[in-house]
Amino acid sequence: MEPPTQMKAIVLTPPSSLKLATIPTPTCPPNSLLIRVHACAITRNELTWLETLARKDPIPCHDVSGTIVAIGPEVLSTFAFQLGDPVIALISFSRDGAAAEYVVALPEELTRMPGNFSWIQAATLPLSALSAWEALFVHAGIDPDACKGTSLLITGGAGGVGVMAIQLGVAFGMKVSATGSERSRHVIEACGAHAFLDYTTPDWWKGAEGRKWDYILDTAGGETLRRCLSLVKEGGFLVSVNDEVQKWKTAETENVRAKFFIVKPDGKQLGGIVKLVEAGKIRSFVDTVFPLEEAAKAFELVEHGASKGKVVLAVSEESK
């Protein structure tokens, strides 16, 4: 069935207002696919990203689960999926997101949806899981086949990236510590972390054996990042997904190997994560589900930092 000519979407209008609008359904470019959106997930601060503000009336939410409804002619001969297939994707931040009934995706951005996840659960995966995967196995250079027993500290362990990073570390045999507040302790422990560190207590880093780690994934930034730079073992590595690293270095930590990065869409890596999901190694953590028309409330919850896990918008009737 052909997509309708008009669709509902959440758009960001000046200066910072989210509204439900009826706009033209995007056409499918020759090198792309059109996805009927079932659910999408929210990322904190995304409404203030330069990539978002560079577009007129941008549509937010770049995590998507949905079904393929159109395939561009340049994709047909090489694409492994078919019309109607359920998929997930991280949509490039330079294009409109998935807080709409339809979204355009590139073939290299998506992979098949896990068979054991619902539409809502699947929408929580792409950005958070890819951020964790790329931080650990790309930028920190960890070899997933040779990291058993190495130590990993994750700050913000109950956040979207944190819960995925804990589970990835545990899945590959790392000894994982994670920070959080007492009210998020159950989430961190449910992910399989070997040590919970309450960041609200003075000298929280002294609550774990060794007090230094082979690898650190920082999702908090700021003063937490500055402290973490002093907690990396000699020869270890720190990766931040929140803040530039160099500005927090001191004379004592100048030589610590560390970097900041922004996640990139990668359907192949996402496919590897899907296999871990189907093997029972990774579960989703959904905080709250809102209907599309209540997107403003959903973003407010996320921006206040009150959520544990991901906040998801249910777009289609099938996802509700």
Name the descriptors.
7-stranded mixed beta sheet; 320 residues; globular; 9 helices; alpha/beta
Task: Explain what this protein looks like in three dimensions.
With 320 residues, this protein is α/β, with parallel strands linked by helices. The protein has helices at residues 50-53, 73-76, 119-123, 126-139, 160-171, 185-190, 222-229, 267-278, 295-303, and strands at 6-13, 17-24, 33-41, 63-71, 86-90, 102-105, 110-112, 151-154, 175-180, 195-198, 213-218, 232-240, 258-260, 286-291, 310-314. Strands 3, 4, 5, 6, 7, 14 and 15 form a 7-stranded mixed beta sheet that branches. Strands 10-9-8-11-12-13 form a 6-stranded parallel beta sheet, sandwiched between helices. The chain is globular.
Helix content: 10-25%
Largest sheet: 7 strands, mixed
Q: Based on Cα principal axes, name the global outline.
A: globular
Radius of gyration: 20 Å
User: Helix- and strand-based class?
Assistant: alpha/beta
Mean pLDDT: 94
Low-confidence stretches: none
User: How many beta-strand elements?
Assistant: 15
Q: Gap between N and C termini, in Å? A: 22 Å
Task: Give me the number of helical elements.
Answer: 9
% residues in beta strands: 25-35%
Order of helices and strands: EEEHEHEEEHHEHEHEEHEEHEHE
